[in-house]
Design brief:
single chain, alpha/beta, 2-enoyl-CoA Hydratase, Chain A, domain 1, Biotin-independent malonate decarboxylase subunit gamma, ClpP/crotonase-like_dom_sf, lyase activity, EC 4.1.1.88
Length: about 240
């Protein structure tokens, strides 16, 4: 689906979401209130210029008292790995964006990421994965790190990583694997009303980060929730 088709299905009553290059900003009436919308679209990389603009928009919403949710549409490449962006502190800009989303959530604005295309590496972590709830549309293709890059970083032969990816979702890119590890809460039905599916997400109570528990239930990350629980118990004395 295109961003226009997604927005029309989400907000059949209309919206004022506009594009600015590869970014989206705006809001729409929804369920008697409003939903704020930001987006990184077009499969474009996220550099410092995009990250700081998205952060500013999220922080402005976080400082408001409307308590309205933020819907973050994501179809990006990885972070922009240009010499300029790296020298100017790209990792700090991405961390700032992720922390802006966490602040918005802490201030009472639900943050829902909607992954409808690609996203990878730091760009994926700072946008979609930094939202309180992440859902996806069929055909989305996320990857925390592609196997070729992982081979260069770990110095392991790519054949070894390909073999591990077949049995361990943590190693593997792709929508199904991110669902199995709990990173993606649900895959929406593109043929049904996206407005109804967004309303269902907003109606569901949310208490903390349930991704590790989802990963355990789905068999993709069997030990993370148990270990995190043991650490939390030990820390409490």
């Amino acid at each position: 689906m295109t961003p226009a088709e997604i927005l029309d299905s989400l907000f059949p009553g209309g919206h004022d979401v506009t594009t600015d290059g590869d970014l989206l900003f705006g809001r729409a009436p929804f369920g008697g209130g409003i939903v704020h919308v930001v987006g990184a679209t077009g499969g474009a990389p996220i550099g410092i210029d995009q990250a700081i603009r998205l952060s500013a928009a999220v922080l402005e919403i976080a400082s408001s008292d409307d308590g309205a949710p933020i819907l973050f549409l994501v179809d990006s490449a990885s972070q922009r790995m240009s010499r300029r962006d790296e020298l100017l502190g790209l990792s700090e800009y991405l961390a700032h964006l992720a922390k802006s989303l966490l602040l918005a959530e802490a201030n009472g604005h639900r943050t829902i990421g909607l992954l409808y295309g690609g996203s990878a590496a730091g760009a994926f972590i700072a946008t979609a994965l930094a939202c309180g709830t992440l859902v996806a549309l069929p055909g989305a293709h996320p990857e925390v790190m592609d196997l070729a890059s992982m081979a260069r970083v770990t110095k392991l032969p790519i054949e070894v990583l390909e073999a591990k990816a077949k049995t361990t979702p943590v190693f593997a890119p792709g929508l199904d694997n991110l669902v199995r590890v709990g990173g993606i809460a649900a895959v929406w039905d593109a043929r049904a009303s996206l407005a109804d599916q967004l309303q269902a997400v907003l109606d569901a109570p949310r208490a903390g980060d349930d991704r590790a528990a989802l990963g355990a239930d789905r068999g993709g990350r069997p030990n993370a929730a148990r270990i995190a629980g043991a650490v939390a118990t030990a820390a409490q004395g």
